[in-house]
Amino acid sequence: MLLAYWNSFSGPFVFDDVASVVENQQIREWWHVGGLLTSERELPVAGRPVVNASFALNYALGGLNVWGYHAWNVSVHLVCALLVFALVRLTLEQPTLRDRFGPRASDLAFAVALLWALHPLNTEAVDYVTQRTETMMALFYLATLVASIRGVAEPSQRRWPIAAVALCAAGMACKESMVTAPVMVALYDRAFVFGSLKEAFARRWRLYAGLAATWVVLLLLLQSGARINSAGFSAGVGVWTYLLNQTVMIVRYLYLAIWPWSLVSNYGWPAPLTLADVLPQAVAICALLAATLVATFRWPPLGFAGCWLFLTLAPTSSVVPIATEVGAERRMYLPLVSLIALVVVGGAAIWNLATADRGTSRPSAHV
Question: What is the rounded end-to-end Cα distance, in angstroms, of the chain?
């Protein structure tokens, strides 16, 4: 992975990097903690103090030497890849999947993590310095899930639930997309650990309450209206217009996940679309949503993959308008995990069925 991203280390500061790093006076005075916590409104790091602190650390170590900022981004991406490996391996070792995938859990998890780490669709999130907001949020998102799963395996150890809540709170201070993490933990337990949400809440309500409490952190950070002029319901773009634009963008994201060609760094502002303009894309997205809903009840592991895709995309690609960017490929950083896992694990399942069929159809030898 280091070789794949090595040529990015000399990439200059671009676009939002100017405001986040080059002109950001707060990171030059890292000892003023209050300044790091309360960035100026509309800055890319406003309401994201953990990311702002990471820039301050970079500046303290190397000033505006761009190499250190890229090294941080690649390092975070590497840790995320390790967490993807841990998440997939732990999932395939759950009782519901152990008989089918357990013996090859590490191999399949390695394949998922490697393909995800090297997928070209992730290059914007890694190469674009300011977009460590996405990768650092993802790091805490994945770590929250892993800590939660470990808490099931070691119920007597309180450290794992405490760690999950702390990691979730840190993620809220990186980017608003972390908002879905508490819901995802509950859905994971329903899909892989317990027979129903009722049983999951009966057994783990304390953890869920702690994770839900981290929403307070996000609310406090949003209270100042960090990007009120560029994102949110007062940003100047209608909810319906933005939603119609997202049907086009989500279909494009799915296409790029399969064929990552002609990547775009700036998709511009939302266009004034009507439902007739995006009807094919809207029908496709609705069909995928319906399939996810059905699978959630009939085939929970498969349904969880669909929920992961849509819920991790929801904060940026649904009804909350982001006026300055109708789309951004970095938004697929977390959703891409489920798509690659579906391909790898689904391919392994199909291979198992094919080889089993060949074994049963082979004529037996008679003496």
Answer: 55
Helix/strand/coil percent split, the chain, to 5: 75, 0, 25
pTM attached to this predicted model: 0.94
Q: Is the separation of the CB atoms in 50 and 25 below 8 Å?
A: no
Crossing angle between the packed helical segments 181-188 and 300-313, to the nearest 10 degrees: 180
Amino acid at 81: A
| Residues facing residue 231 across a β-bridge | 322
CA angle, residues 27, 1, 10, in degrees to nearest 5 = 45
Residue 293, pLDDT > 60, answer yes
* CA pair distance 264, 276, nearest whole angstrom: 25
Q: Are 145 and 85 in contact (CB under 8 A)?
A: no
Residue 192, sorted as left (phi over 0), alpha (psi -120 to 50) or beta, turns out to be alpha
Q: CA–CA separation, 260 vs 278, rounded Å?
A: 22
Range 58-87 average pLDDT: 97
Q: What are 310's two structure tokens?
A: 């849509």
**Which pLDDT tens digit goes with each residue over 190-238?**
999 998 999 999 999 999 999 999 999 999 998 876 666 677 787 789 9
CB 36 within 8 A of CB 52: yes
List pLDDT tens digits, range 259-280: 999 999 899 999 999 999 999 9
Q: Please state, in angstroms and rounded to a whole number, the distance separating the CA atoms of residues 350 and 248.
A: 31
Residue type at 114? L
What separation in angstroms does the CA of 224 have from each of 38, 39, 156, 272? 9, 10, 40, 30
**Cβ pair 243, 318 in contact under 8 A:** yes
Of 176, 173, 174, 179, the residue nearest 212 (C-alpha): 179
Q: How far apart are CA 78 and CA 82, in angstroms?
A: 6
CA-closest candidate to residue 167, choices 149, 152, 194, 193: 149
